[in-house]
Sequence to fold (747 residues):
Amino acid sequence: MGLAAEGRAGPVAVVARDVAVAYAGRAEPAVAGVSFDLAPGACLLIVGPSGSGKSTLARAVAGLVPWSVPGRLGGLLQVDGIPVGGPDPGALVARVGVVFQDPSSQLVMERVEDDVAFGLEGRRWSRPAMGGRVPAALAEAGLPGFGRRRTARLSGGEQQRLALAGAFAPRPGLLVLDEPTANLDPPGAAAFGARLAAIRDARSATIVLVEHRAEIAWPLADLVLALGADGRPLALGTPDVLLTRHRRALADAGVWLPDEPFPPLPADGGDGDGSPGGAPRLVEARRVGFAYARGLPVLVDVDATVAAGERVALLGPNGSGKSTLARLLVGLLRPTAGSVRLAGRDPARVAARDLARLAGYVVQDPERGFLADTVEGEVLAGLTPAERASAGDVAAALGLPLDGFGARNPYLLSGGEQRRLSLVSQLVRRPRLLVLDEPTFGQDRRTYAGLLALLREQLEGGAALVAATHDLRFAGDVAGRTIRLAGGRIAEGAP
Amino acid sequence: MIAVPTRADRVATSPLGRANPLATLAIAIAWLVALATTTDVRPPLLVTAVAIAAALALGRVPPADLARGLAPLWLAALSVGFFNAVLSPANADPTATVVLAFGPLRLTEPALAAGIALGLRVVAIVAVGVAWSRITDPTHLTDALVQQGRLADRFAYGALAALQAIPWLAEDLVALREARRMRGLRSTWHPRVLVGLLVLAIRRGDRLAVAMDARGFTAAGRTRYRIVRWATLDTVVVLAGLAVLAGIVALR
Fold:
């Protein structure tokens, strides 16, 4: 195969006519009635409330349903004139590059250059052509010279850039991106957005994008498709048309809009005696250091106090130690230096049943915290009879009413629904300290408002909140002060 | 930005690291088979010494790495040797020379010799295995298995990807036990934790399979980014390995 044939076919058209997608084992379709025409080189943004089928539609457009993901596809969906679900799914997939939200589960090879080459091998590039393209694709993605690195040792942001390099290296005619900035800090997300803008401005690939960060996604879009909660289209048009004529409908459905300013962030206040009105200190971390066995230190000399009723946003870039500090505060890790006190006790030594009432902790990856086969079992796990009585209200407040969701399988919920389920399972106990790791990921404005209201109610009841987050809107909305970490230390500028 | 060469890069550029993994695998298997057929004391000792020396000198494996891999070996060899010596039926033979007697228990010379020989064989087998695994890069081995061994792509690269997911299992386990603790449940070894571990492993495998499909993995006629050939070096490695083995056997 000659060089000329390798990935030079250019952007492709995508045509959808009354497309419906249902997953195997589910009667009602996740998405239905979707029609659009996407010209070669154009960018389609798919928006909609949590659970409206955005990821499902993206997978179908990428040619993965029903070929790789079991399910049923109805209507007509064509990429570059090739029907999805046709006899040659490989030929279609060869024209498409895909980036999913979790980069770690899409890296295949041990070394960076081998991972980029993986997609080229499948598309039958010649060896000399690969030798030139692999380093170039890495450089384009902002990873020059990373070829021999190990994929497992890269930071989350670097892995996400590598996933884009791998998807874009074969010069696909269509790029399908499902929440590609989900795990990135704000500068990382902005850099990813700029890279995408360059691809879009050069019209070098058609783009189908699912993205909650409206301020990054909307400026890229030529066409916006808004899905309703039922998985049916709410509106389709240029960004201007949607923002003028359909603004109200989109906002009511829970879609984030790009032109709403974030609330201002509160001031940094790393340590200090930030006890409002002399409230007693609930958390005291003194010169805390942490290192994993045979590893570099993750945290060094971190001082932090949180008083009852305080709301603290824990900010900092990917890999700065936010999640580690969160786990130390609730006693899931023991510091290797210094001490942590929660209500005057060492949280790592508190018995489980007491700890669960003292502190709640919402993990970054909800699936890793699931303990039951049903949503109801998940919500009720470990609750006392009194707590059980109020569990249904908490679940309903976060948009997971037990009479609708109770029997569903937690693992088969959408990403945003899983996140809310993990919040419900911690908030039902009304712990005195809430530690939340990226609590707002995948939430639409309705579920976000529900979360905010529920948190405010618990905070008014005297609970304290520490939220590790990249979501600056959430930090501004909920926090009274911020702690900024950088490289495992409290960033300079904190008192 | 230039990446710092890692320890693995030093191994990969060494004579044994560059050799076709199938060549070193063939030698390792030949040595292991020979060990299984001998009851002598000297061959296992020599094989152990040669394997360790080759990994250090020709494979440039950092001594600390090799020592870590070999650490559990001494205990295993000691316990295998000890129990085989103490529990050997030769101890009941009234004509055998007694080395050690403790009340009704006696340890005879033939039993001790058999125990030592068995223990030494365990040492040699583990030493060969550890040395081979330290000089062998998993990607290099997979490439050789596909290109020379004619193994199916889907099986070989699927297994390689699964190998890299193993560290995730340990992290999943920690996360699941933490989740139980934060719900006020006894966090130790509840069967539910194992169910969760299995579900997470299957979900990760599913996602990985979809990601591989999305990158054209199943397309027919893949090209190769990394070419593995059978070079003169590989023939030299095989012949040298067999010569060393012949020498060891002859010395007996």
